[in-house]
Amino acid sequence: xxFLAIRALRKQxxxxxxxxxxxxxxxxxxxxxxxxxxxxGKTTFFNMISGYFRPSAGEIELxxxxxxQLSVRGRVARGMARTFQITEVFPELSVRExxxxxxxxxxxxxxxxxxxxxxxxxxEAAIEASMARAGLVxxxxxxxxxxxxxxxxxVEIATALALQPRLLLLDEPTAGMGEQETYQVAALIRRLHxxxxxxxxxxxxxxxxxxxxxxxxxxxDQGRLLAEGTPQQIADDPAxxxxxxxxxx
Amino acid sequence: MAPAARMRLLKLAVIWVVLLTAxxxxxxxxxxxALCSRVVILxxxxxxxxxxxxxxxxxxxxxxxxFGLGAYGAGLALKFATSSTILAIIAGVLLGTIAGALLGALxxxxxxxxxxxxxxxxxxxxxxxAFRWNTLTGGDDxxxxxxxxxxxxxxxxxxxxxxxILFYDFVLVVLAVVAGLMGLLLQSPFGRTLLAIRENERRxxxxxxxxxxxxxxxxxxxxxxxxxxxxxxxxLNNFADPTLFNYNMSGTIVIMAVLxxxxxxxxxxxxxxxxVVMQDYLSSMMQNWMWAVGLIFMAVVLFFPRGILxxxxxxxxx
Lengths: 249, 318
Fold this sequence. Notes:
The complex is a heterodimer.
Chain A: E1 2-13, E2 16-27, E3 31-35, H1 42-50, E4 57-62, E5 65-66, H2 72-77, E6 80-83, H3 95-106, H4 117-134, H5 149-162, E7 167-171, H6 179-196, E8 199-203, H7 207-213, E9 216-221, E10 224-229, H8 231-236, H9 238-248
Helix pairs in contact in A: 3-4, 3-5, 4-5, 5-6
Chain B: H1 3-25, H2 33-53, H3 63-81, H4 85-107, H5 112-132, H6 134-137, E1 151-153, E2 156-158, H7 164-187, H8 189-199, H9 201-206, H10 211-237, H11 247-260, H12 267-285, H13 290-303, H14 307-317
Antiparallel strand pairs in B: 1-2
């Protein structure tokens, strides 16, 4: 069943067409990778899905409902969460506080000047669960700004997950990471995907990560959808090899 | 009790002992009750301003507007409407808060330097109104002809009108309420959401936080407490003049907060103490005392960007 449907999405900045007529259908529970050379329009495409940019044309549907005109907040309320290419966390707060903020937002407490005992207990439980899921329990009271890059990324992903999303958008989750950290983050994503039947769309440059995680891959090139298929189909596609894999490898 | 909580309680106890005994220990070094009241009132204003700068990450350069409205609101109420100091203060708070709510709605979408610029303009608008509306505000000469009145509690009548120490204690009671409310606010989910906005607005937005609404509410709360300080200030001096609205006043509030340490809850109070005492001493020695304040301020910003309390804290944790 299609969970995220994108129809003829287009974004134009002045005379530059960053995303040109891209359509895509992502099934519920699928892990979809979007790859493509720099400047292919991947992040712009992402920004339109998550509501950061309004598309110039086209439609986005989430779970059968049109969301093209919804604000970021409206999309979050419908179960969408995202991370960014450059890790976005609350650096001067501890891991626990980062997750507390997300849990309180998720439970609709963010405007409350006070909370009762029961609500507080629910928040605590949610924090513990998120930390356990992301392997952050030992670092609970460290300031996030002081953590290693891979751990900061894990905090960002855990924060997004604390919203209990149905669709998780990850923009280059292993960007700028070493071998070990890349492996850790990829393992975290795989675990989340497997255990929570989460629909994931991710942009990624590291081909080992992509081929490891993705059920299906979409290739963007110069704002257009070049190819789409299983990892094997993509690896064998001559057009993709010419445009992308051939140059990179 | 957890050691961190015990430490916090201890700190709070020290702060309040120092505040409560200030008129006595400061006397030998040239302090007097009215000066102590000045410090606490301006410190309250700086702490309220810091709700935005330190805990929401928003720079308002027009908080004099709401300080002044609190002062004029209380002054006018005492002059024309009531003989109750407390009702007058409530009038000042209401005036400042309503103005904060209306003007806040206009700026809440602006950020950074644009926010600062628009808020400066707010202060100047009220400055010129107070300056020109002679019949009501007394214009350039300021608002005179009112005096704070004794406050009755049950059978007792506290003569805060003539007893300066008693007035100082009254100011401390108000501070206790204001600081208590601000502290609760900052420790609530709402307060944490403000921290989230300070730390990373984009992340906050993509968590689904209604960022503009939260900033507006923080702005209104900040204006409420600043107006309360302004109302006390009018009661302290039995006088209010247009310079309260001036951007100099806004700047003073900013300087106090940054000087004392805007990441610490009580930092602005310390900044106010340093500022007011310097002003009191230096202005008796030279006319251009501001240059000395300016120099110290620059030194703090350049070398101790977290202010005096920030430095003390780092020492303590190192």
